[in-house]
Amino acid sequence: MTANEKNNEKSQLDRIEDAISGNGREGLLDRTARIEERIVSIACLAEDAKNSSIEAAVKSEAAVTKVAETVQTLAISATKLSEALATHLGTDHLSTLIRKKSFWMLIVVGYIALHLVSTEVPSLWDALMVFLNLPKLAIPL
């Protein structure tokens, strides 16, 4: 080997040594250590993200279940409300009843029946008042 080749090898080895130790700058070992630290921190962050996503999935599943139950309850309530509305619309109102003869006939027959009971059978009238928990009206003449 010639002196020139030895110089080249020595300068090459010096450059490798300078790169490893850094020689006043960040060396290869320091860079490798920093890269390993970043890899470890990225792995920790990935694990935290995985745990957070699992928790979020559980919470969202619970929220979806609660919303589904609420929607079902709302649907049942809407069905009951529509049935009640249909029943209400099918009934006659007082203004409609007043126009019918049967309504007035029922009032007249009821008045006559109650009058007959109160005058002809007063003990039955008193029993009816006691049963309905109404006060007995006595009008002195």
| Uncertain parts | none
> What's the overall average pLDDT, rounded?
84
Roughly how many Å apart are the termini? 153 Å
Helix content: over 70%
Please identify the oligomeric state: single chain
* Number of H/I helices: 5
**How many β-strands, per DSSP?**
0
- Structural class per helix/strand content? mainly alpha
Q: Which overall shape is indicated by the principal axes computed on the Cα atoms?
A: rod-shaped
Amount of beta strand: under 5%
Q: Tell me the Rg in angstroms.
A: 49 Å
SSE run: HHHHH
| Largest sheet report | none
What can you see in these coordinates?
This protein is mostly helical and 141 residues long. It has a domain at 93-141. Helix content is 84%, strand content 0%. It is built from 5 helices and no strands.
In short:
It contains five helices and no strands.
Secondary structure layout:
Elements: H1 3-21, H2 28-90, H3 94-98, H4 101-120, H5 122-132
Please supply descriptive tags for the structure shown above.
141 residues, mainly alpha, 84% helix, rod-shaped
